[in-house]
Amino acid sequence: MDMNRNKGAGRLFLPEDSYDTAAAASEEELLDIAIEYAVEAHGHRNTPALREELREMLRHQRRRHAA
């Protein structure tokens, strides 16, 4: 896998959901995917605070998988 690519699993963002999806993309692409889903599926507003919260979730997930 390209070292600049990241993996994100939807179940780690929203554990109350019953879906399971994954994507391999740059951090910004994964963030855009997560934001779009949060807005469309859950009615969140695309705010700087939501973007930062999801960015931290992506980074936390990446650190967990690197360990």
Give a nutshell description of this structure.
With 67 residues, this protein is mainly alpha-helical.
Salient structural properties:
2 strands, 58% helix, two-stranded antiparallel ribbon, mainly alpha, single chain
Structural write-up:
With 67 residues, the protein is mostly helical. The protein has one domain (6-66). 58% of the residues lie in helices and 12% in strands.
Task: Please outline the helices and strands.
Elements: E1 6-9, H1 10-13, E2 22-25, H2 27-42, H3 48-66
Antiparallel strand pairs: 1-2
Helix pairs in contact: 2-3
Query: Which sheet architecture does the biggest sheet show?
Result: 2 strands, antiparallel
Strand content: 5-15%
Return residue spans where pLDDT drops below 50 for at least 5 consecutive residues: none
Number of helices: 3
Number of domains: 1
Helical content stands at 55-70%
SS-derived structural category: mainly alpha
Mean pLDDT: 76
Radius of gyration: 12 Å
Query: What form results from the Cα inertia axes?
Result: globular
**Which strand order do you get reading across the main beta sheet?**
1-2
Please provide the count of β strands: 2
How far apart are the termini? 17 Å
Order of helices and strands: EHEHH
